[in-house]
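Q: What would this chain look like folded?
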Amino acid sequence: QLQLVESGGGLVQTGGSLRLSCSASGFTLDYYPIGWFRQAPGKEREGVLCVSRTGGVTNYADSVKGRFTISRDNAKNTVYLQMNSLKPEDTAVYYCAAQSYCSGPVVSWGQGTQVTVSS
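A: My prediction, written as structure tokens:
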């Protein structure tokens, strides 16, 4: 079973930064494109960024352009989401997911990590 675990969430002030990590258990992460998604209270889950197996990046959300970056370290079996210049509207539960391909079906979801940006 593919198991993904997110970490790195927390409370940060507006303008601050956080780095989320997505690690894998039971499989090699570099076999899959990995996407980051988020779900704010009362809203539908939305895609943020995806990194392909070869490091290509797909941006799902215009609202994070220039502020969020995604990267993968296959040696550490980890994908990162670096979030800078955070805004209160970035407050959400953030999920990583293994995908068939970026913009494609999700194969497995992580359990999510809470990010709260205070104003």
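The chain is about 0% helix and 50% strand.
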